């Protein structure tokens, strides 16, 4: 591992030889990092591999909570999604 760091920092670039700039004082903290489960990572990998397939150009996966609440299906507007009444 250290040989990779040395290669990237010293041999390939000069990025490790200078100190990073200071963080601005008024900067808002970012999102808290949440580790994905192995199942979520595998599902994301599978969806990414299916991205170019015909017939599945914009597939999305929804969690059980999203399905139960009925929210999150239509990203374009903030209204509740409507389910057609003629579904049987």
TrEMBL record:
This is Uncharacterized protein. It comes from Smallanthus sonchifolius.
């Amino acid at each position: 591992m250290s040989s990779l760091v040395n290669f990237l920092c010293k041999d390939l670039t000069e990025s490790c030889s200078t100190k990073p700039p200071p963080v601005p004082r008024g900067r808002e903290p970012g999102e808290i990092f949440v580790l994905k489960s192995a199942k979520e990572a595998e599902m994301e990998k599978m969806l990414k591999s299916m991205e170019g397939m015909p017939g599945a150009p914009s597939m999305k996966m929804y969690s059980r909570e999203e399905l139960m609440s009925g929210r999150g299906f239509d990203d374009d507007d903030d209204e509740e999604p409507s389910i057609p009444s003629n579904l049987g």
